[in-house]
User: Which sequence fits this backbone?
C-alpha cells in the first residue's frame, strides 16, 4: 500500500497561509524577511510566524521556513539569532540549500529538521545519500529529474523525497540563475529575482544596428527564455508510485485565488486516489478548476523525458476569471454574505462561488449594501466590505470570481 503524500502549499503571507490550510494543505512553506528566495513576497514578520504556526498547528498542519539563500559573509552574523527565534516559535522544518547555513542550523537548532532545497540541485542517489548521512531528513529534488530517476533515488536511499508538481518553472538549473543579477544587479540567489527571462526580446544582427528581428512571427516580441507552468494534476498515480513523499505547489507570490483553487483540486485528486487506487479515474473538473487561475501554458516538465518548456512560444498569462471577492462571514438571519472586495463587481454580475467544502456554484448578484446598510450598485474600492444577498449559505474563506467575457475555456 502506498503512503499518502503530503500536499505542501506556498504561503507568501499570513492570509495565504490561512487560505492554504482551509483549502486542504497538509503543510505550508513560508519565508521571513531575510534568508529566503522570495524577497518580493509579502513574507512573515516574527509575530506573523507565531500567529501562523499557532493557526497551523491547531489544525494539524506543519510549517516549514525557507532559509535557502546562497549566503555571503555579510548574511551570516544575524543568522544564529534568527534560528533561535524560529526554534522558539516551533516551526516544523528549515529549508536550506547552502552547506554553511546547514552547518549553522545544525549547531544552533539541531532539533529542527532540515529539508534540502531544490536549489541544491540533487539529481542522483549518491548525492541524496550524502545529504542523508549529514542529517538532512528530506530532499526537495531538482526539477530536472524524470519519474524513473526519482524512483531509483527512492529505492536506493532511505530519505523523504519532495518534488514540485505544479506552478511556475525557471529556465535555469533548478533555480540557479544569474540573469537578473547581470541585467539589474538584483540576485535571484538572494531572493531578489526581477524575472528578466519573462521580458520581451528581439534579435539584432551586428551589421544592421537598430534593426530588430523577432525570433517568432509575433508583433509583441519574443520570449526566448520563458518556461511554461508545471501541471501534474493528471498524473497523481505516477507521482505516488515513484516514491514522492511531498507534492509541492509553487507560488508564494501568487494570489489567494491561485492558492485556494490549485490546492483544492490537488487535494481532491490525491484523496480520491488514496481511497481506492485500483478504481481511480481522473476527473476533468479538477483540471477545469486549475485552468481558472492565471497561468502560462501547462507542461509536465521533465517528469516524462525532455522538458519542452523553453521552446519559443508566447508567454502571455491565460486569465479566464477575475477574483473579485473573499467571503468573510455568512449572516444566516439576513441571508447575506459579508464580502471583502478584491476586484470591482456590480449588481447584475453573474459570479461563481467556491469554498473549502463547496462549489463552484453560480449565482447572480441582485442586491448589495455597503457597511452602513445603504444599497449600492457596485463595489469599486479595494478591500471594500459589502453585504451581498445570498439565499444559499456560503462558507467563510469562500472565493467569488467572475468569468471574463472574452475568455476561452479550453483544456490542454
Assistant:
Amino acid at each position: 500500500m502506498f503512503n499518502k503524500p503530503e500536499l505542501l502549499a506556498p504561503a507568501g503571507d499570513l492570509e495565504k497561509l490561512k487560505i492554504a490550510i482551509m483549502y486542504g494543505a497538509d503543510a505550508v512553506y513560508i519565508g521571513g524577511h531575510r534568508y529566503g528566495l522570495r524577497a518580493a513576497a509579502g513574507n512573515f514578520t516574527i509575530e506573523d510566524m507565531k500567529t501562523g504556526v499557532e493557526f497551523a498547528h491547531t489544525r494539524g498542519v506543519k510549517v516549514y521556513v525557507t532559509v535557502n539563500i546562497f549566503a555571503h559573509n555579510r548574511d551570516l552574523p544575524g543568522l544564529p539569532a534568527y534560528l533561535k527565534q524560529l526554534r522558539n516559535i516551533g516551526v516544523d522544518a528549515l529549508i536550506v540549500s547552502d552547506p554553511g547555513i546547514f552547518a549553522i542550523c545544525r549547531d544552533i537548532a539541531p532539533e529542527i529538521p532540515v529539508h534540502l532545497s531544490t536549489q541544491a540541485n540533487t539529481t542522483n542517489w549518491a548525492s541524496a545519500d550524502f545529504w542523508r548521512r549529514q542529517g538532512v531528513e528530506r530532499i526537495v529534488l531538482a526539477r530536472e529529474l524524470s519519474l524513473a530517476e526519482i524512483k531509483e533515488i527512492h529505492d536506493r536511499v532511505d530519505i523523504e523525497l519532495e518534488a514540485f508538481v505544479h506552478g511556475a518553472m525557471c529556465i535555469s538549473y533548478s533555480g540557479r540563475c544569474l540573469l537578473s543579477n547581470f541585467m539589474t544587479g538584483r540576485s535571484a540567489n538572494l531572493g531578489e529575482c526581477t524575472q528578466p527571462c519573462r521580458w520581451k526580446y528581439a534579435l539584432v544582427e551586428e551589421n544592421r544596428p537598430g534593426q530588430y528581428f523577432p525570433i517568432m512571427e509575433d508583433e509583441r516580441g519574443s520570449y526566448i527564455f520563458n518556461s511554461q507552468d508545471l501541471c501534474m494534476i493528471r498524473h497523481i498515480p505516477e507521482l505516488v508510485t515513484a516514491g514522492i513523499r511531498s507534492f509541492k505547489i509553487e507560488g508564494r507570490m501568487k494570489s489567494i485565488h491561485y492558492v485556494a483553487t490549485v490546492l483544492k483540486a490537488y487535494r481532491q485528486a490525491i484523496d480520491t486516489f488514496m481511497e481506492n487506487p485500483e478504481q481511480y479515474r481522473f476527473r476533468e473538473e479538477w483540471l477545469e478548476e486549475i485552468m481558472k487561475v492565471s497561468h502560462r501554458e501547462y507542461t509536465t516538465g521533465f517528469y516524462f523525458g525532455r522538458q519542452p518548456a523553453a521552446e519559443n512560444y508566447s508567454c502571455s498569462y491565460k486569465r479566464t476569471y477575475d477574483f473579485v471577492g473573499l467571503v468573510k462571514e455568512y449572516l444566516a438571519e439576513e441571508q447575506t454574505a459579508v464580502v471583502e472586495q478584491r476586484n470591482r463587481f456590480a449588481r447584475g454580475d453573474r459570479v461563481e462561488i467556491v469554498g473549502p467544502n463547496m462549489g463552484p456554484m453560480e449565482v447572480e448578484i441582485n442586491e448589495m449594501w455597503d457597511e452602513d446598510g445603504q444599497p449600492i450598485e457596485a463595489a469599486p474600492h479595494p478591500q471594500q466590505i459589502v453585504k451581498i444577498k445570498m439565499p444559499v449559505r456560503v462558507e467563510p474563506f469562500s472565493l467569488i470570481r467572475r468569468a471574463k467575457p472574452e475568455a476561452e475555456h479550453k483544456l490542454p
